[in-house]
From TrEMBL:
Function: Responsible for the formation of the pyrimidine heterocycle in the thiamine biosynthesis pathway. Catalyzes the formation of hydroxymethylpyrimidine phosphate (HMP-P) from histidine and pyridoxal phosphate (PLP). The protein uses PLP and the active site histidine to form HMP-P, generating an inactive enzyme. The enzyme can only undergo a single turnover, which suggests it is a suicide enzyme.
Metabolic or biological pathway: Cofactor biosynthesis; thiamine diphosphate biosynthesis
Name of the molecule in the record: Thiamine pyrimidine synthase
Family statement: Belongs to the NMT1/THI5 family.
Record's signal peptide: 1-20
Length: 355
């Protein structure tokens, strides 16, 4: 029970890191009539519309733009799906909602999903929407942090609660002791500590906190960044997952959902400005400018430069295994080593959807 509670806390904190400045007011669900309705959609191939609840990690924002675009353009309806997009929040854990049947499909980070899988939750990833990590370490140029080696003697901020593993992997790569060579400090969900100088390097998501710095008047030319992808210590983030038992009984529905979602993501990545506007219209708690900024940056994670857009959602098992290896190495509370095989991560639904 102790390990389960620790993992639950990890998942909640992980959700918080992504969404600084994005507001907290409740949002309307998209296509929703009853957000509490548990959906059992195994009924049919009789032509009737089937309802699907999609549980997000957070409030409506461009991090999830592909689903909102697919809904707005009628792609789910074309697949016979009545989509119900459920916003997340600090008190909502996607893994629990999907496992318990409150939602059919969820969005979460791979590292968070793995903590539940390791506890015996029969959850299975079916698509990987972000192909790259969005985590950076950001510093002001006058701090002199031009490479990870320059972190020696510096104050480095992170949100912790599971968000620190990429940073720890980075330190390990450069043989830096987090207790002796630098100070690893608790970071809040703003960038104020970096602005005021109480930390030298701050954790930031490319599509959110980094944008807040720029929107706050700080020039890119005045910042240095350390990118986890470039350093080879990236961990995978936003993915789609299901209760594996439910999915096995609803194979065609999962495929149709993925097909519509992928179409939405392709459109969103092709025209992120329009996608940002679509998301803004869903819930105006975040400025249009920030939603469009987020959309453009999220597109770079979903379909990076040189990536074949026809493969949006593919699962890179090498990247998944790397995430599991880092998670086990640095999460001492993990019940057991994450299992990475076709019971926990499967491309079979995605492969059918892109045919």
């Amino acid at each position: 029970m102790k390990k389960k509670l620790l993992a639950l806390g990890l998942s909640v904190v992980m959700m918080g890191m992504l969404f600084v400045g994005c507001g907290t007011k409740p949002a309307e669900t998209v296509g929703a009539k009853d957000t509490k309705e548990s959906v059992d959609t195994a009924k049919g191939n009789n032509g009737e519309t089937q309802k699907v609840n999609l549980q997000l990690k957070w409030l409506p924002q461009s991090q999830f733009m592909g689903y909102y675009v697919a809904a707005a353009k009628g792609y789910y309806k074309e697949e016979g799906i009545d989509i119900n997009i459920l916003p997340g929040g600090s008190d909502i854990i996607p893994e629990q909602n999907v496992y318990n049947g409150v939602a059919d499909i969820g969005v979460t980070w791979v590292s968070s999903l793995m903590t539940y899988q390791a506890q015996g939750y029969e959850l299975q990833e079916v698509a990987q929407m972000f192909q790259k990590s969005g985590l950076l370490l950001v510093s002001k140029k006058d701090a002199g942090i031009n490479s990870p080696k320059d972190l020696i003697g510096k104050k480095v901020g992170n949100w912790f609660g599971g968000n620190e593993y990429e940073v720890l992997a980075l330190l390990e790569k450069y043989k830096l002791d987090k207790n002796k060579d630098l100070k690893l400090l608790q970071q809040d969900y703003t960038m104020d500590q970096l602005k005021e100088g109480s930390i030298d390097a701050a954790s930031a998501m490319t599509y959110n906190e980094f944008g807040l710095l720029l929107e706050g008047g700080i020039s890119k030319d005045d910042l240095n960044t350390i990118n986890m992808n470039d350093e080879g210590v990236a961990m995978m983030e936003d993915c789609l997952f299901v209760n594996s038992t439910w999915a096995s009984k609803n194979k065609d529905l999962v495929v149709r959902f993925l097909r519509a979602s992928i179409k939405g993501w392709k459109d969103a990545c092709k025209d992120p400005e329009a996608a940002g506007k679509t998301v803004y219209e869903v819930d105006k708690s975040v400025s249009l400018e920030h939603q469009v900024y987020m959309a453009k940056e999220v597109a770079k994670l979903t379909a990076p430069e040189g990536f074949d857009a026809s493969k949006i959602g593919q699962i890179d098992m090498n990247a998944i295994k790397q995430t599991g290896d880092f998670l086990k190495l640095y999460n001492k509370d993990l019940a057991k080593t994450p299992v990475v095989d076709d019971t926990t991560f499967t491309a079979k639904y995605w492969e059918e959807a892109i045919k």
